[in-house]
Design a protein that fits this description.
Length: 381
């Protein structure tokens, strides 16, 4: 395994960092207070090519390998404080665009991918239900075959991007008796009669990423809306989770790098008892631990990218990556606050955003407990 990154990858990382510093700032606190989605940032990302990074050039994408995508997401996580925008980008890319690319028909790819890459269509995916969270495959939304299509009935919760989405990948069961093998994915356009999307839910974090509920009441979708084959939904879901559990969490790694740089600077400048606080071992060890977490997170994320670049599946490695990075981000967020003392508790330093983003990261894409269950399953338990 080669851990070096090429000069092209380094140059691309630099250009993503410069782009994020230049274009993805603005009044983040104001957007957060209003729960406003950063549309301008979204469109600028599309112009830069972010939404098209992993997509073939035939559809207008940049056709970058997984490692380069990962490096770019890490750079965005470091330089862009609008974590809600980044979260929405991640949902769009890994849980809607990628499934269309990997499982879609030629017609579906032509219909959706160019517009998703251009930022003209926003995507999301809808698996979780009021009674089916961690136990996702116990979902109750039904898709009943009728002449010319399927009729969806049921409800979804906590769906990222739903209030702004043009396209939702909806999972439903076409045969409840088959359990996970009866789950099927459907591409449902907004404004399809019978699909109702709520207003954005109020959340404690990621406030600039709109999250909603969806209900389906006799919602008729054509046969051509099915993604992949009947019963292929769980395979689609597993594949997209591998992408999300690596690329989304690369943004967290970037945020951890930013935290560390800021804390090192603070620890050098801030003096108590006649010396900089960085000279106190209890402070410097916190910073050393933050550095170690970044290194370990990077290693496992790059391993997942390396496997995916070679067309290998990485269900175990992506579960480990998600667990390690999400828990590390929480630990580092707590340390970063503590290192700054009372100043860390003041809004100016925005430690609350890191803490709450980190808390969310331990829940979505499968909770920490579920990642441990997956890892234990690979031990035969
Ligand atoms: C910000 C955010 C964005 C989200 N975006 C989306 C989205 O776009 N699309 C989508 O479909 N879903 C989305 N979700 C939903 C998310 O995937 C679920 O919240 C998550 O899978 C947990 O399900 P739950 O909330 O029902 O919790 P539950 O499953 O009820 O879990 C509650 C607690 O019990 C624990 N638990 C449950 N089962 C077990 C077990 N077998 N072993 C050990 N512990 C267990 C959990 O770990 C957790 O601590 C999002 C959630 C959040 C917070």
């Amino acid at each position: 395994m080669d851990f070096s990154i090429s000069s092209e990858q380094k140059a691309f990382r630099r250009s993503v960092s410069d782009f994020a510093k230049r274009e993805l700032g603005g009044d983040m606190r104001a957007r957060e207070k209003q729960g406003a989605f950063f549309w301008d940032g979204w469109h600028k990302c599309a112009e830069f090519g972010i939404q098209g990074m992993p997509m073939p050039s035939a559809f207008g994408g940049l056709e970058l390998d997984t490692t380069t995508c990962l490096i770019a997401m890490q750079a965005l996580g470091k330089e862009c404080r609008d974590s809600g925008l980044l979260f929405s980008l991640n949902s769009h890319m890994w849980t809607c665009e990628i499934p269309v690319l990997e499982f879609g028909s030629e017609e579906q790819k032509q219909k959706y991918l160019p517009k998703m890459i251009e930022g003209k269509l926003v995507g999301g995916h809808a698996m979780t239900e009021p009674g089916a969270g961690s136990d996702a495959y116990s979902l109750r939304t039904t898709a009943k075959k009728v002449d010319g299509g399927y009729v969806l009935n049921g409800a979804k919760v906590f769906i990222s991007n739903a209030p702004i989405a043009d396209l939702l990948l909806v999972f439903a069961t076409t045969n409840k008796e088959l359990g996970w093998a009866g789950i099927t994915g459907f591409l449902v356009d907004k404004d399809t009669p019978g699909m109702h999307i709520s207003k954005p839910l109020e959340k404690i974090g990621l406030k600039t990423s709109p999250t909603g509920e969806i209900s389906f009441e006799d919602c008729l979708v054509p046969d051509s809306a099915m993604l992949g084959r009947e019963g292929q939904g769980s395979a689609i879901f597993n594949a997209e989770m591998e992408w999300e559990r690596s690329c989304l969490f690369a943004c967290h790694l970037g945020a951890m790098q930013r935290q560390l740089e800021e804390c090192v600077e603070y620890a050098k400048d801030r003096e108590q008892f006649g010396q900089s606080i960085g000279k106190f071992q209890s402070v410097s060890h916190k910073l050393a631990d933050m550095r170690v977490r970044i290194e370990l997170g990077e290693l496992i994320l790059h391993k997942v990218a390396w496997m995916k670049s070679r067309g290998k599946r990485a269900p175990l490695e992506s579960a480990i990556a998600k667990l390690v990075v999400s828990e590390s981000y929480m630990d580092s967020s707590v340390d970063a606050l503590q290192v700054r003392g009372g100043y860390g508790f003041m809004s100016e330093y925005q430690a609350d955003r890191d803490l709450l983003d980190a808390a969310g990261g331990k829940i979505y894409s499968g909770t920490s407990e579920i990642q441990r269950n997956i890892i234990a399953r690979f031990l035969g338990l």
